[in-house]
Amino acid sequence: MIAAACSSIFPAGAELVTGQTLTQPITLSSDFTLPESFFDGQIVKVDIGLGPMNARGVLVAEPL
């Protein structure tokens, strides 16, 4: 598994998929793990703590 972290900033006025509109900005930070095959180009479901998210890894350069 690959340890990962993500921070997302949602501005005030953003509309959520539930139809609600944010009245103030929100920053969400999550630590999660990715499968070793993450960079094979397949879409994988990742649990970010607030629910599942679909993700796909693409290498844009060879690792150092």
Structure in words:
This protein is mainly beta. The protein contains no helices and 4 strands. The chain has strands at residues 2-10, 26-34, 44-47, 52-55. β3 (44-47) and β4 (52-55) form a beta hairpin.
Annotate the secondary structure layout.
Blueprint (H helix, E strand, L loop, with lengths): L1 E9 L15 E9 L9 E4 L4 E4 L9
Key features of this structure:
single chain, 64 residues, mainly beta, two-stranded antiparallel sheet
* Span of the ends, CA to CA: 19 Å
Q: Which residues form runs of ≥5 with pLDDT under 50?
A: none
Largest sheet at a glance? 2 strands, antiparallel
Overall pLDDT metric = 86
Tally of individual helices? 0
Number of beta strands: 4
Helix content: under 10%
Radius of gyration: 15 Å
By secondary-structure content and strand pairing, the structural class works out as mainly beta
Beta fraction? 35-45%
**Element order: H for helix, E for strand:** EEEE
Strand order of the largest sheet: 1-2
- Shape annotation: elongated
Summary, kept brief:
This protein is mainly beta and 64 residues long. It is built from no helices and four strands.
